[in-house]
Design the sequence.
């Protein structure tokens, strides 16, 4: 009889330890995930898209959305801030990913009518307007701007209903520059980007 109680006690002890370890492991994974997301451009864009979708007014989720490149802002003088094509394109790609994962229909307007097979790659997308359709079946545009600052980048995105051109939702976030580049390698002074090395 004592033998049965002993086995039951050991089993309960092992089960308890297992639960604690599982809880600790799960908590660690969540912490790692949160740290990873918060320290990446992709993570900040996810937060931005969540903010946008949670504040949208009169938005029809079954409609088509075209996601544009996030462009740099300009000063009152009209001088454009240093243009980072790769930054605007990466934000666009991340926004497209999260909007699609949210279950919305995204129009890929850069799709060519046929696949262009080349020696090094098979191309399905293009930025050459002559290779694309002249019409886009979209009900909404999702676009925005970014402003480079000394230690962060201010990103603004907005959801625009067309053809009315009314803004249904908008979102803003400050992304630390070290989420995109090492802070020791890139700085912004007098509206110019300085790279110290790669």
Sequence:
């Amino acid at each position: 009889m004592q033998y049965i109680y002993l086995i039951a006690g050991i089993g309960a002890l092992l089960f308890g330890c297992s639960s604690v370890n599982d809880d600790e492991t799960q908590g660690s994974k969540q912490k790692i995930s949160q740290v990873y997301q918060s320290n990446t451009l992709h993570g900040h864009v996810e937060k931005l898209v969540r903010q946008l979708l949670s504040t949208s007014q009169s938005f029809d989720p079954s409609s088509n959305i075209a996601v544009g490149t996030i462009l740099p802002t300009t000063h009152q003088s009209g001088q454009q801030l240093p243009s980072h094509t790769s930054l605007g394109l990466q934000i666009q790609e991340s926004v497209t990913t999260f909007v699609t994962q949210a279950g919305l229909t995204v129009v890929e307007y850069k799709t060519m009518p046929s696949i262009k097979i080349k020696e090094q790659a098979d191309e399905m997308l293009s930025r050459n307007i002559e290779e694309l359709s002249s019409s886009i079946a979209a009900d909404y545009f999702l676009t925005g701007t970014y402003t480079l600052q000394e230690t962060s980048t201010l990103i603004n995105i907005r959801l625009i209903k067309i053809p009315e051109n009314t803004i249904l939702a908008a979102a803003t976030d400050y992304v630390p520059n070290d989420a995109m580049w090492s802070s020791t390698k890139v700085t912004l002074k007098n509206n110019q980007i300085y790279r110290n090395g790669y």
Q: What stands out?
A: The chain has one domain: 39-195. The two ends are 71 Å apart (CA to CA).
